[in-house]
């Protein structure tokens, strides 16, 4: 069985998907980290983010790998573990720009389908239920109010010592949502056969339980 979890930025997808995967002893694949790794490389090498050909070529000529280490998923750009570099606001914004390029998405689709080939995966992203794994047995669309998503991210960043303002974060999440929902290729939308789970005001564990119940019903 494969489980697809999609939804907007900050809905709690990675945390929830990771927990669901570990409960079911499935493999967790965070597709956002792959777009983020590419975005990091563009940023790191100071390449022109608005040039699709350059960005697409960069992906073609390098390797992104997901590696499990001590129960956590790490993302590698060639031999560099970039996991701790990919969550900054700059990389987040860049990620939604590289993700709007058709030639980048085509390559990512191949990589992601390959990763899911063995089955029993929980994959999270924006287009998993609609494009990457349209035949997934369980599809979840996870969402929450913008305010709550921004607050969650703000608390995370605050704990890491960042000084970011909540209002700025809310604006950035709104911008990222807009780009993700309005791009030409594989925009973020709920698949017709996905179950909507609104996580506003619900704890992570409650969300995980709901999804496990849905898996039991549908699997
Ligand atoms: O999920 P996360 O916020 O880490 O994803 C970073 C960015 O990557 C998103 O804003 C989105 O633009 C892009 N993305 C995507 N399709 C996916 C996963 C992520 O377009 N399947």
Automatic annotation (TrEMBL):
Domain Cytidylate kinase positions: 3-216
Source organism superkingdom: Bacteria
Location within or outside the cell: Cytoplasm
Catalysed conversion reaction: CMP + ATP = CDP + ADP; dCMP + ATP = dCDP + ADP
EC number(s) given by UniProt: 2.7.4.25
Protein residues bound to ATP: 7-15
InterPro entries in alphabetical order: Cytidylate_kin, Cytidylate_kinase_dom, P-loop_NTPase
GO molecular function list: ATP binding; CMP kinase activity; dCMP kinase activity
Principal location class: cytoplasm
Swiss-Prot/TrEMBL keywords: ATP-binding, Cytoplasm, Kinase, Nucleotide-binding, Transferase
Biological process, per Gene Ontology: nucleobase-containing small molecule interconversion; pyrimidine nucleotide metabolic process
GO cellular component, one term: cytosol
Pfam families referenced in this protein's UniProt entry, alphabetically: Cytidylate_kin
Family, similarity comment: Belongs to the cytidylate kinase family. Type 1 subfamily.
Database matches in HAMAP family: Cytidyl_kinase_type1 (MF_00238)
Protein name stated in the entry: Cytidylate kinase
């Amino acid at each position: 069985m494969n489980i697809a979890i999609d939804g907007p930025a900050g809905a709690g997808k990675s945390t929830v998907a990771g927990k669901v995967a570990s409960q079911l002893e499935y493999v967790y694949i965070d597709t956002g980290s792959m777009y983020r790794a590419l975005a990091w490389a563009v940023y790191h090498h100071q390449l022109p983010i608005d040039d699709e050909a350059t960005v697409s070529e960069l992906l073609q000529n390098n390797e992104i790998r997901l590696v499990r280490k001590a129960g956590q998923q790490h993302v590698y750009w060639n031999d560099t573990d970039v996991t701790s570099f990919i969550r900054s606001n700059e990389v987040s914004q860049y990620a939604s720009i590289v993700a709007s390029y058709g030639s980048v998405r085509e390559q990512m689709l191949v990589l992601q389908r390959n990763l899911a080939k063995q089955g029993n995966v929980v994959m999270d992203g924006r287009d998993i239920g609609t494009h990457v794994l349209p035949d997934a047995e369980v599809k979840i669309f996870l969402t929450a109010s913008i305010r709550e998503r921004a607050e969650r991210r703000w608390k995370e960043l605050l704990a890491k010592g960042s000084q970011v303002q909540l209002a700025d974060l809310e604006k950035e999440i709104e911008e990222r949502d807009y780009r993700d929902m309005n791009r030409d290729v594989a925009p973020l939308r709920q698949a017709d056969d996905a179950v909507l789970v609104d996580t506003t005001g619900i704890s992570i564990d409650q969300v995980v339980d709901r999804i496990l119940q849905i898996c039991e019903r549908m699997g």
